[in-house]
Design goal:
Radius of gyration: 23 Å
Structural class: alpha/beta
Shape: globular
CATH architecture of the largest domain: 2-Layer Sandwich
Strand order of the largest sheet: 4-3-2-5-6-8-1-9-18-16-15-10-12-13-19
Strand content: 15-25%
Helix content: 40-55%
C-alpha cells in the first residue's frame, strides 16, 4: 500500500497536471481575459471540483456531430435569401430609411447572409389568450405544412387548443413538424401529449436532448430558446411567448402571470424564419434540407405590408457574438430615446457600459424589468446592476403586473429589436435565439405604445431609496452577480 505521503504527492502531481492541461486549453481558446483568469483560479484553488465545473460549463461545446451539421446548414439555410422573389417590395433602399439600419443590415449579412427584407405585414399581439387562439386558427387554416420550434410547451388551457389544431391538421394531410427543447419542456415530455401528437401523424422531436453520456461531449445548458411558427410558407410567428397558457403555467411560482408579446408576419421575412426552423430540425434529425424546403412551400410568399424586417438567428456555432454586436449598435445609434424590456437583466460588460454611455450622453434610457422573477439567483444578480445604471441616468421601472417576459428594444421611434433575446449572458452566449430587427414607424410605434403600458404598470426606482437598502441585501445581490456567467 502507498503511504499517506505518497498519496499526497500523487494527488498534488495530478492536480498540477490538471491545472496545466486546462490552463493550456483556456489560453489557446482565447476567452475574455477576466473569464479565462476566473476559470484558471477556480481550477487551481478548487481541486477536482474546479476541473469538473470547467468541463461542464467552461466552454460552449456543442458536440462534434452537431457542430458538423450546424456548419453544413449555415451556408445553405441562413443564406436563404435566394428563395425570396426578386421584387421591388423585398428590396430595401436605405437612402429612404436611415444609415444606422444599413450598417446593421451589412453586419448581419456579413455573418449570416440574412438580409433585411421589405414587404412585411406585422401584427403585434400582447394578449396571450388571443395569441394562442390566432396561432391555432392559422394551423387550422394550413393546407400544406406547419413548422414549430419552442423552448417550453406546457399542457393546459388554450395551449391545448394549439395541440388539437395540429392533430386536425395532420389528420387532413398537412405535414406538421414540431421541435421542443428537451430541457426547457422536460415536464411536458413526461405527459401524454407528445405521444398524442405522434399518434395523429405530427412529427415531434426534442431539441438538444440531454443525458449523462452526452454531458461528456456537450455542454447541456446550451438550449433552443427560439419561438417560431411557420404555416404554409406564408405566415410566421415569433416573439417571447412559449407555447403556454399563463393561467396554467407556473401559477404557484409567486411571480404572477407571465406577460408576453408575439408578432404575426406575412411577407418576405417568413422565408428566413422558415429557414431557421428548418435548419434546427435538420440539425436535430439529420434529415436533408431539400425536402423540408419543398414542404415549406416558400414560393408562396408574397408582400404583406410596408415593414422592413431582418431575421437574426443566433447561437453557439452559428453566429459568434452577433446579437451582442446588434444590441451595442442599437445603443450607440440612439440619439433621443432608448427603451428596453427584459425579464432577466444580467448584461455583458460591454452592454452594461453601452447603456450607461447612452444615458450619460443625454439619451433618455428607459429600462423596464419585472419586480419579481422565477429565479432566486437571477433576481438578486439583476438588482446589483441597477445602482450604477441609475447613477448614470437610466430610468428603471419595476413592473408590477407579473413576470414581464417580453424582450424588446425601441430606438428613437424608428427601429426595434424584438424576439427571444434577454439582456443576459445566457441569451447572448449560450442559447439558440431568434430576433427581428424592424424598421417601420407603424410597428415600432405600436411596440413603443406597448412598452408605455408596461411603464404605466410599474414603479419607478428612486436612486436614493435604492442606495439606502440594507447592507445585507446589497451584499447578497453583489455576491449573486459573481455567478452571472452561469445564469
Amino acid at each position: 500500500m502507498l503511504d499517506p505521503l505518497h498519496l499526497l504527492s500523487f494527488g498534488l502531481l495530478l492536480h498540477l497536471l490538471t491545472v496545466i492541461g486546462i490552463g493550456v486549453r483556456v489560453i489557446t481558446l482565447r476567452p475574455a481575459p477576466g473569464v479565462g483568469l476566473a476559470w484558471l483560479l477556480v481550477v487551481a484553488f478548487v481541486p477536482a471540483a474546479g476541473a469538473v465545473l470547467y468541463l461542464l460549463f467552461g466552454e460552449r461545446r456543442v458536440g462534434r456531430l452537431r457542430a458538423r451539421r450546424r456548419a453544413a446548414q449555415n451556408e445553405a439555410i441562413l443564406g436563404s435569401a435566394a428563395a425570396v422573389p426578386k421584387t421591388s417590395e423585398a428590396a430595401v433602399d436605405w437612402a429612404k430609411v436611415h444609415p444606422e439600419g444599413a450598417a446593421i443590415d451589412r453586419m448581419v449579412r456579413t455573418v449570416l447572409k440574412s438580409p433585411a427584407l421589405g414587404g412585411n405585414g406585422m401584427t403585434l399581439f400582447s394578449d396571450s389568450a388571443k395569441c394562442l387562439q390566432a396561432i391555432a386558427a392559422d394551423v387550422d387554416a394550413a393546407t400544406t405544412s406547419v413548422f414549430m420550434a419552442f423552448y417550453i410547451w406546457n399542457e393546459g388551457g388554450l395551449a391545448d387548443g394549439v395541440l388539437e389544431a395540429l392533430v386536425r391538421a395532420a389528420g387532413r394531410g398537412v405535414k406538421c413538424r414540431v421541435l421542443v427543447d428537451a430541457l426547457g419542456a422536460r415536464p411536458w415530455w413526461k405527459t401524454a401529449q407528445p405521444e398524442r401528437l405522434r399518434a395523429a401523424g405530427v412529427q415531434v422531436r426534442p431539441a438538444l436532448p440531454t443525458s449523462l453520456l452526452r454531458t461528456l461531449a456537450t455542454r447541456t445548458d446550451l438550449r433552443l430558446h427560439r419561438k417560431i411558427v411557420v404555416v404554409d410558407g406564408a405566415t410566421a410567428w415569433t416573439g417571447s411567448m412559449n407555447l403556454v397558457d399563463p393561467k396554467f403555467f407556473k401559477a404557484d411560482a409567486g411571480v404572477g402571470p407571465w406577460v408576453d408579446a408575439m408578432v404575426r408576419i406575412q411577407g418576405y421575412a417568413v422565408v428566413p424564419l422558415a429557414a431557421t426552423v428548418i435548419a434546427d430540425w435538420s440539425v436535430e434529425t439529420g434529415e436533408p434540407t431539400e425536402p423540408l424546403f419543398a414542404d415549406a412551400v416558400l414560393d408562396r410568399v408574397k408582400a404583406g405590408g410596408p415593414a422592413i424586417a431582418q431575421v437574426v438567428p443566433t447561437g453557439p456555432g452559428q453566429s459568434g457574438d452577433l446579437i451582442l454586436q446588434v444590441l451595442l449598435s442599437l445603443c450607440y445609434a440612439a440619439r433621443e430615446e432608448l427603451v428596453l424590456t427584459t425579464p432577466y437583466l444580467i448584461p455583458d460588460d460591454s452592454m452594461f457600459r453601452a447603456l450607461r454611455g447612452a444615458a450619460e450622453r443625454g439619451v433618455r434610457v428607459e429600462l423596464i424589468v419585472p419586480e419579481r422573477v422565477d429565479s432566486f439567483l437571477v433576481r438578486h444578480a439583476s438588482r446589483s446592476y441597477l445602482v450604477d445604471l441609475l447613477r448614470a441616468g437610466v430610468r428603471v421601472h419595476l413592473f408590477r403586473g407579473g413576470l414581464l417576459h417580453t424582450k424588446s428594444v425601441t430606438v428613437d421611434g424608428k427601429t426595434a429589436l424584438f424576439g427571444t433575446v434577454n439582456l443576459d449572458m445566457r441569451s447572448i452566449w449560450l442559447n439558440y435565439e431568434v430576433s427581428l430587427v424592424v424598421h417601420d414607424p407603424g410597428f415600432v410605434g405600436r411596440l413603443r405604445a406597448l412598452q408605455a403600458t408596461y411603464m404605466a404598470d410599474s414603479d419607478p426606482v428612486d436612486l436614493a431609496a435604492w442606495q439606502a437598502r440594507p447592507f445585507a441585501r446589497r451584499f447578497l445581490e453583489d455576491a449573486a452577480r459573481l455567478a452571472s456567467p452561469l445564469l
